[in-house]
């Protein structure tokens, strides 16, 4: 069966977040983290389990759990406005964690029926990125990857952030 669409552009993709309102429950809406210009990959490497027996002349293995590597990063344009938005995300995440509520992230595409969903724990402070001559000022956040949910349906487009 031939594909009707050759591919999907990343143009218009949005990164959003939400803190659980009830521990363990997926949030119903997400806040858009504006000016994201790079969202890191989540690689899944499959661990192997030795399933060899004494009679096997060559080692036999079976698939074990998948490993995410434990970290996830994204980069955004650092401006006076985005600093407030991203710091608010860090503050809400920290407050939620104190109440056993996790922070969920969504990577949404306008022309894809499903969105990538990640549960991760950001640090508490915006780091200072490398700065060079005649470059865009960006900030890269590295998060502890709690749970990779993968592609999920029925995720709404992240909404504009509230005024902070």
Radius of gyration: 19 Å
What spatial form do the alpha-carbon principal axes imply?
globular
Task: Give the fraction of residues assigned to helices.
Answer: 10-25%
Oligomer: single chain
Enter the CATH topology name.
Elongation Factor Tu (Ef-tu), domain 3
At the first level of CATH, what is the class? Mainly Beta
The number of helical runs is 1
User: Can you name the CATH architecture?
Assistant: Beta Barrel
Mean pLDDT equals: 92
Straight-line distance between termini: 49 Å
Q: Count up the domains.
A: 1
* Biggest beta sheet summary: 7 strands, antiparallel
Q: What is the helix/strand order?
A: EEEEEEHEEE
Describe what you observe in this structure:
With 164 residues, this protein is mainly beta. The protein has one domain (14-153): Elongation Factor Tu (Ef-tu), domain 3 (Beta Barrel). The protein has one helix at 80-98; strands at 14-19, 31-32, 36-39, 45-50, 61-67, 71-77, 103-108, 114-121, 138-153. The strands form 2 sheets. It has a 7-stranded antiparallel β-sheet, covered by helices on one side. Strand 7 and strand 8 (114-121) form a beta hairpin. The longest helix is centred in the middle third of the chain and has 19 residues, at 80-98. The radius of gyration is 19 Å and the shape is globular. The model has no long low-confidence stretch (mean pLDDT 92).
What's the quick description here?
The chain is 12% helix and 38% strand.
Using brief descriptors, characterize the structure shown.
single chain, 164 residues, mainly beta, Elongation Factor Tu (Ef-tu), domain 3, 7-stranded antiparallel β-sheet, two-stranded antiparallel ribbon
């Amino acid at each position: 069966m031939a594909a009707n669409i050759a591919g999907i552009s990343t143009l218009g993709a949005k990164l959003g977040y939400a803190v659980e309102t009830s521990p363990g429950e997926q949030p119903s809406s997400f806040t858009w983290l504006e000016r994201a210009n790079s969202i890191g990959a989540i690689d899944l490497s499959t661990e192997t389990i030795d399933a060899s027996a004494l009679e096997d002349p060559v080692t036999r293995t079976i698939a074990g759990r998948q490993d995410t590597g434990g970290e996830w990063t994204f980069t955004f344009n650092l401006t006076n406005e985005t600093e407030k938005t991203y710091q608010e995300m860090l503050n809400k995440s920290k407050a939620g964690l104190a109440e056993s509520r996790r922070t969920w992230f969504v990577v949404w595409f306008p022309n894809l029926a499903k969105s990538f969903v990640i549960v991760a724990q950001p640090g508490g402070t915006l780091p200072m990125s490398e700065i060079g001559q005649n470059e865009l000022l960006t900030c890269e956040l590295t998060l502890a990857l709690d749970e990779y949910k993968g592609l999920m349906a029925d995720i709404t487009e992240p909404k504009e952030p509230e005024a902070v």
